[in-house]
Amino acid sequence: DPSVCALLPVLGRDVTVPLVTGGEVTYAALDYAASAPALQRVWDDVAAYAPYYGSVHRGAGYLSQLSTDLFENSRRTVAEFLGCRAEDQVVFTRSTTDSLNLLAAALPANCQVFVYETEHHASLLPWRNAQVTYLDAPRTPGQAVETLERALADRDPYGPALVCVTGASNVTGELWPVRELAAAAHAHGARIVLDAAQLAPHHPVDIAELDVDWVAFSGHKLYAPFGSGVLAGRADWLRAAEPYLAGGGASRKVARRADGGVDVDWHTTAARHEAGSPNVIGVHAIASACKALTEAGFDNLVAREQELVSRVREGLAEVPEVRVLSLFGDDAPRVGVISFVVRGWNSSHFAAALSAEYGIGVRDGLFCAHPLVRTLLGSDPQEPGECGAPEAGPGERSEVGVPPAEGRGRSLNAIRVSFGAGT
Ligand code: PMP
After folding, report:
1. Of all protein residues, whose CA lies closest to atom 4 belonging to ligand 1?
2. Is-contact 121 115, C-beta < 8 A?
3. pTM for this entry
4. Residues ≥6 apart with Cβ < 8 Å to 44
5. What's the complex ipTM?
6. 19: domain CATH number?
7. Which of 32, 93, 119, 170 to mutate to test the pocket of ligand 1 (most atoms within 8 A of CB)?
8. Model confidence pLDDT, tens digit, residues 46-77
9. Does some domain include residue 423?
10. Distance of alpha carbon 322 from alpha carbon 38, whole angstroms
């Protein structure tokens, strides 16, 4: 399909890597959930703009004006991509982590936060200054809604509350019932923020249609790895909050007072939370990726990706030692992210062997979702007991291609393959 071919990423296509067994092989990049390579279109758009680079909101010169227009037009493109309502703001950040920390800093006083223990750490941890209720891992999408409804029914109905949920898991790839969770949140007077870091590259995300209050995502997972992210949604809490960063660009007017202090008149637009010189290349790259995905058509992308998901799952099902990790069961709808363990193998050894012997790049570990992966690993009755193998820390690798001689038992971490429609 030519529209999907147009989405082939730049990297991992014709890159050859050496193998420990000698010779080299074309690299298979299967770690898009950690970070996805730039689409050719994004790369080309960034390169075409590069000679015209200039400061945003900070210059009278032609290139500054052009760069400012590009930056603000990118905001409109992202708003369109997300189906934003007229009153929504699109704030450019560094990443999903940054976006959710911004929202955490903008919570009204005495806000209660409800978050599943299964969340990525970026959505689990930023709420440490609020009163947080951690919800138990549900085992069906319906149970997720019930758990939330039960927790919300017990809350103070007059105080502000926020639910934070991931649209697609970066561990299992499974889709969460976002629309139903949003309806439950709103029925109990709470608001909801969608962590779309893993969802947006694979599925259309429409704020108005899902009826969520905010959406956060990262450029680097959306084939635009140039250092920008997005927080989009309701303006009221953002406008009422102290600026996330204090500095140039966030303030309309700053003046010394007669008493020697300083008066600041902060912007009430998205600029309030965007102090400092904007990353126009990162933002331009995100807008370019939004256009590329929209033009390819999510129907085409989903269809192609589901073929790949089926092939990988069918292949894994043929290996008796492999156990695919799943919270909601085999039939749950999912994106191109599949985590598994191989009985008798330490996941770090296995992932290292895939790279060294086959040139396949995957990730092993707990994927910044420790409680979730531990729940998934701990639930297999066929793998009782602790495995003697240590959890691999960052960069820790043992001899490749060698199954551990001892400590066969429950895995302490998992292997993840992840990809997109253009893979
Ligand atoms: N949420 C989810 C579901 C993710 O997959 C990720 C990235 N793996 C994040 C949040 C955090 O994104 P970032 O590292 O770009 O801030």
Report:
1. 197
2. no
3. 0.93
4. none
5. 0.99
6. 3.90.1150.10
7. 170
8. 999 999 999 999 999 999 999 999 999 999 99
9. no
10. 31
